[in-house]
Write a structure and sequence with these properties.
10-stranded mixed sheet; 14 strands; binds adenosine-5'-triphosphate; single chain; UDP-N-acetylmuramoyl-L-alanine:D-glutamate ligase; binds magnesium ion; alpha/beta; about 300 residues
């Protein structure tokens, strides 16, 4: 399973501002500003690069913001491919407030996607993930049906390509019907999927196992500061996240997805994937703005993560 392609249907330019305090009706000056290409697909591609896993990124861009993103990604990623559409790529804004510490996030609206763009994207996915794996992650443009990951996953599977799906709501519930190879919902996404609260690790593990038995090879469920659970044919495992001081949570899930993939693609175990996934996720929350983990930090955390088997 060599080729990996990461889809970025709805990328964004992430602008992060650090400010002292938001004040009603007053102008606030940022004392630190960052611009980063963002969106889940791009973050997963950046995570894979840090993990030294070669991947192609198939990214839809538009307008001047799109040009800026393409310049940055051409420098940053190994094999980015851009499909250009009309309009302007969206801007997402993260505000990190110092006093009291909190984070605000505003996501912009992306352009309306032309269906010919979708066809070209699908062609690119076949080419760049041939005999390998495609990562389908993140939101879709507003005019694209919530069946999109289901359709792509079904067609890619028929072409001998495995899929990792990380999505929410109907995008995820529909995609599951196509039995992707790997899914990585967080606890909230999983609760929305099964339409009930899951209050114990045992309950979460049993839902993960049901999904695995339904036909999904690896079901990873991330639990934020509590860690994560995996169900696969190797069993069901839980590991707590290390206690770390959180600077910015942006990209934690995407770092975990990249790390999980980097282990599974090399034939590693689901417990190893869980461990590295948690280490990279927990390293990312210690980084400012949209910055992802460093391998140095993730390696340090690995020693503090212990796998527990859940007997179920
Ligand atoms: N507060 C935290 N402290 C320590 N680790 C954390 C914290 N929040 C997240 N993590 C780490 O990151 C992993 C993924 O986090 P989370 O469950 O929040 O993913 P997510 O909701 O999919 O994130 P995203 O919003 O990026 O999609 C967790 O399993 C954990 O290892
Ligand atoms: Mg997520």
């Amino acid at each position: 399973m060599d080729n990996i392609a990461v889809l970025s249907l709805n990328p964004a330019l992430d602008v992060s501002y650090k400010i002292q305090k938001l004040v009603d009706d007053e102008k606030v000056h940022s004392f630190e500003t960052r611009f980063d290409p963002g969106g889940n697909g791009i973050n997963v591609a950046r995570a894979l690069k840090r993990l030294k896993i070669k991947a192609s990124t198939c990214c839809v861009l538009a307008g001047e913001i799109g040009k800026l993103i393409s310049n940055i990604l051409t420098e940053e990623l190994d094999d980015p491919h851009f499909i250009w559409e009309k309009g302007e790529t969206r801007i997402n804004c993260v505000i990190q407030q110092i006093e009291p510490i909190s984070q605000y996030e505003i996501n912009g609206m992306g352009p309306v996607m032309d269906f010919s763009v979708l066809d070209r994207l699908e062609e690119d996915l076949y080419i760049y993930s041939k005999d390998g794996l495609a990562v389908l992650t993140g939101s879709s443009p507003l005019n694209i049906t919530y069946n999109i990951y289901y359709i792509l996953c079904t067609r890619l599977k028929n072409a001998g390509i495995k899929c990792l799906v990380d999505a929410d709501g109907a995008l995820l519930s529909n995609a599951i019907k196509a039995k992707p190879f790997i899914i990585k919902p967080n606890i909230h996404e999983l609760e929305r999927l099964v339409k009930r609260k899951l209050t114990s690790n045992f309950e979460i593990a049993s839902v993960a196992l049901d999904l695995h038995n339904f036909g999904i090879e690896y079901v990873f469920v991330s639990l934020g500061y509590k860690g994560a659970i995996v169900a696969s044919n190797e069993g069901v495992f839980y590991a707590a996240a290390p206690a770390v001081s959180v600077v910015s949570r942006v990209g934690a899930g995407d770092s975990m997805v990249g790390a999980i993939l980097s282990v599974i693609i090399k034939g590693g175990s689901s417990a190893e994937a869980l461990k590295l996934g948690i280490a990279c996720g927990s390293a990312t929350v210690q980084m400012p703005g949209t910055e992802l983990f460093t391998m140095e930090l993730a390696d340090k955390l690995l020693g503090n993560i212990n796998i527990e088997k859940i007997d179920i």
